[in-house]
Amino acid sequence: MIQKLGSEIGIALERLLEAFLAVIPALLVLIVALALGAAFGLLLRTLLRVLLRLSGRSPEPAITAKGPAGILRAAGLPSNVDRLAGSISFWAAVVVSLVVGINALQPSALRDALSGLVTLLPQILIATLLFVAGLGLAALARRSVLLAAVNAGLPWARAGARAVHGVVLVFFTAIALDHMGLGRAILVAAFSIVMGGIVLALALAFGLGARDLARQWLEKKLRAEADDSGIRHL
Amino acid sequence: MKGPHLLPEVSARLARIGKADILVGIPSFNNERTIGHVVRAVVAGLARHYPDAKAVLVNSDGGSTDRTREIVERIEVGSLAEILVDAIPPSLAERIVTPYVGLPGKGSAFRTIFRIAEELDVTACCVVDSDLRSITPEWIDLLLTPILKHGQEFVCPLYARHRYDGTITNTIVFPLTRALYGKTIRQPIGGDFGFSGDLASRFLEYDGWEGPVARFGIDIFMSSTALAEGRKVAQAFLGAKLHDPKDPGGDLQPMMIQVVSTLFEIMARREDAWWDVTGAAAVPLFGFPHAVGLDAVPVKLDGLLRIFHQAAEDLPPVWEAFLSAHSIEAIRTAAAASPVNLSDEAWVRIVYETAAAFRHRRLAPEVLIRSLVPLYLGKVATFVSETREMTDDEAEARWHALAAIYERDKGLLRALWAPGRRQP
After folding, report:
1. Contacts of A231 in chain B (CB under 8 A)
2. What pLDDT sits at residue A226?
3. What are all long-range contacts of B311-317, with beta carbons under 8 Å and residues at least 24 apart?
4. Which range of residues forms the domain containing residue A30?
């Protein structure tokens, strides 16, 4: 009995070893493909940076320039277009090499699993990009609200900035999850309720609770009054 | 031809005029209450001081919906004898009224004036605001004669001003311009200037007319450009400057963003012009400085202090992107003091660190300067607290002392601006 069990275990281990040895060449191909992809990506990135610099589009855009550099800077992100283009080209090369490498694998559970992951990759990538964009925009919104509120002398500056940051982040997270098809119905309902509630609460707070403040603020805006310090700045 | 497009009828009139000697430009937007007085002063000034010159008055208008343009075209000067014009000229200055193109703002209006000056190949120009109540015919003499008869190329105004009037000028523009270019120009953004026709053409060559230069940045653009190019710059004492009560300079934040970002932009473009400059020299002063009775500027410190204190609490995370820990600590200390005390040294360091951050694009220019606003208000509050009991001369000396700190610490600016570059 024990002898038979030992024999069965031996056969199972042998099969496992055979399966493992069968996968090794394909894994090696996958690793080589990834290495080649990374090397090609690095080459592409360097080439692109050199070309952009030679064409004068980078790296020193005018300080008040508009266009991609201006948008990146406004969002608080590094404004070197060449660096951004280089990063995108590098990661694109890596992803392409990964797909090629997976195709080199023999039909197996590993290949199926990796293929499934690669099929999902575009969706995951777009959702990640949406989330990262949300992070950037939320930070931008928080800073803008904070500066505007502090310069207007509003006591709730920090709390308001945090609230705006949270709302923008929730909004983009919801979009990202929706893009991946996760809990779509629940997301839409929850988001509608939360956003509707916030807008209604703000409208009531500003229109009823702070009626006098609302009137004064609108009057000041409409009359374009100067600040009340008495100072003439220019 | 460089510069903005002109209306066909304006081009036709310019073709008829051919060449002119002098051009006086007046930018306007809904100034029916004051522009008549300005036009009369300009025409009388030209008649009295330059009766034989071929002169043109250009009103560059931003789409006024009141009677501004009609007033410029039709207002009579009145009896020239009554304003002591001895030699009555054969004809008064020709008047051209035209809308300008581009972003709405004083800079765009000036750009059209520069273009017309270039078309007419004038020898000298001056520009005066359309909301002035204190302009006299002598202003035309003071702004133009240094150009026409004394070889100067750019004339800045020097007004008698209340100590709390023009605080962006006093805390940033005057001392920084002096430290950068080594010339003592007390009011580089005074608003009324004289300049040569050649310099008007040079202004047109600038490629950033879609930015802050189109608005309030125009004054510091003109002054900085003239200084950076090593032009002959002078000042002219014009007495008091009284505006229409509807002061276009009332909205602090956009105004400060436009002025300071233009100042930094020209610094970035003309680094070689200021890098080696040390010390500061006086420039020729035309006119006869005299005492002027000025309206008091009633300052309410509460609002300034509230914003400064709140910023000291809330903004350090924003400031950390471009200010040193040393500066942020100095701000906290200043806010904790009573009365508030943002020292000259701390303020100069803050301005230099902001300029370097602008140069190295650590934040968007607008964000950078918005985050400087509460610190500026803190510096103004400090100045008000310090000078309440001072005489006017003592208060003026305080600004010159601040300028001296800017000069003394210019090495810090250089080190932050271009860390690897040789110091003079």
Report:
1. 164-165, 167, 297, 299, 304, 380
2. 41
3. B311/A150, B311/A151, B311/B374, B311/B375, B311/B378, B312/B378, B313/A158, B314/A146, B314/A150, B314/A157, B314/A158, B315/A146, B315/A147, B315/A150, B315/B371, B315/B374
4. 1-106
